[in-house]
Amino acid sequence: MTTQHDRDVATLRAFNRVYTSRLGLLDTHYDGSPFSLSEARILYELKTRTTSMAADIARALRLDPAQVSRTIKRFSTRGLVVARENPAHGRHQLLSLTEAGQTAFAALETRTRAAVGALIDGLPPLQRSRLLSAAATLNDVFDGGAPEVTLRGLRPGDLGMVIARQALVYASEYDWNTDYEALIARILADFHDNFDPLKDDAWIAEAGGGMAGSIFLVRGDQAGTAKLRLLYVEPDARGMGVGQRLVETCIARARELGYRRMVLWTVSVLTAARRLYERAGFTLVEEAPAHRFGHDLVDQTWALDLEHEA
Amino acid sequence: MTTQHDRDVATLRAFNRVYTSRLGLLDTHYDGSPFSLSEARILYELKTRTTSMAADIARALRLDPAQVSRTIKRFSTRGLVVARENPAHGRHQLLSLTEAGQTAFAALETRTRAAVGALIDGLPPLQRSRLLSAAATLNDVFDGGAPEVTLRGLRPGDLGMVIARQALVYASEYDWNTDYEALIARILADFHDNFDPLKDDAWIAEAGGGMAGSIFLVRGDQAGTAKLRLLYVEPDARGMGVGQRLVETCIARARELGYRRMVLWTVSVLTAARRLYERAGFTLVEEAPAHRFGHDLVDQTWALDLEHEA
DNA sequence: GCTCCAATGTTGATTGAGTCAATATTTCGA
DNA sequence: TCGAAATATTGACTCAATCAACATTGGAGC
Fold this sequence. Notes:
By secondary structure, chain A is an alpha+beta fold. Helices cover 49% and strands 22% of the residues of chain A. Chain A has two domains: 4-143, Orthogonal Bundle (Arc Repressor Mutant, subunit A); 150-305, Gcn5-related N-acetyltransferase (GNAT) (Aminopeptidase, 3-Layer(aba) Sandwich).
């Protein structure tokens, strides 16, 4: 039996093979280029970090200091690099490109850009955009550090994404049918059409360039009562405090807008959400069985007094 | 000034650098492994293509025949590979792994899988899923051949994706406001709630694992009249015949369901869609200016007689 | 039949990549 | 002040990569 983990490993290994055979040539020794791949990488480091030690380059590129030393020596004899003494530290030497080195680098850049450009241009638009968005994602995953969670207001496409993600996730996790999707589509259409900036609000949580969650604040049926609606956290973003931030932000805004009470409707199977509500001070005020989304569920109403809480 | 193309090239080159420094070690010479990266690649080819010539391997891996020859020779002396004469062709030799070769390969596989698995497990869930989906996309872009366009029925999440993509694309291309998003959210909620399999239908076009377009068939106000709604083609998938296939499929289904006439509502700025309608035989029956989605647009109604056409 | 050509596989030669070990030098902290 | 750690270099070695030369074989074309 193959687990998801096995399949993930296979995917990544296949990617590795594809990369080595199809893309690896991207940086390799173009016909007639005076630089090998390794030399080009070192040259790139010399250019970007204007003054640097050989040891810095070795660390950045995970190369052996011996190899860097020899490469720098070759560059020196070719007149591409000069090593100045560091007055502040006798053992460090400051490497920098000469005029000739700058010129050689520029020529290499031009050639590389042209080659990469040709590869991109050779792809049909769909493939190109898929390639580039995947490449950008990988850059961010490996170079972007820990993904930061940010909250923002609604933008075009957000309503649809909220509908799509919730419908898909609850269909796969709880086997809910598409009644749920239609329900939230209508809720969000109403939210937009009745939107009053003094009574309503909404937030999208973003992490790593994608949606990580969402929450909506809507006026309730009675004056002074707000409704918290459609709290959602992406499965992959769980455990990052996204839900708590959304709930807290929503409650704080409700207070700002002068609401005295907040209610929300949910169903009992959504246990992760339940914990968030409890933590925020909500209490369960009503429960009733209901047949929804193809299942026998238990409707719940939770409420929070906004006046007599911290 | 930097064009989009320049940025794309930079993205891909950054990806290349990130890959070489962060992921390149994936296949490299694990401590104590008896195989170098190049040897491991050749071993992999020997395993997967059960019998093969050295020349095949050289072509597959874009290696020099000389290098393959020498590597195979090393493998032979280590007892990992045997070369049998090809009775059909005296110059070709059939290479295959010995028992020892199979064992060595299996050990290498185990070690590699463990290393890749450790890398995956070391990532937080969000990063992991982003990495894997990007890797899968790249595999498909480079190994999957031309993306095939397929049509399918609705699944959970589709309504939301249709809303999200149309809202986002028309906002960026025509600067429409979010009224449009709310409008189609309501249209699709109604579509779901009133759905009758004998009168309504919907299709999602897929290409390369993502949505490439969509179209909806809905019963009209008058008996015998169908409405074509929400035709949409992803910008990246334009020019692939997606729109035409959607329209043709929709019309064919309308005929099947016994409709005698088909109408559609659109606005005049959607010129690409207009061409599709004309091509399918629709004729413009009504035009009226209207202020919609934050702009002065021209509403259009098109109609197609389903009885007296091919 | 024959010749020419292309493909296959091998070997030699050379340069660079990659790794390990040893060493000289310098700085910095205990 | 001493020793640890970092920097830079050199030697030694194996493999990767590339080019050139060459022998061998099968097949296309005559």
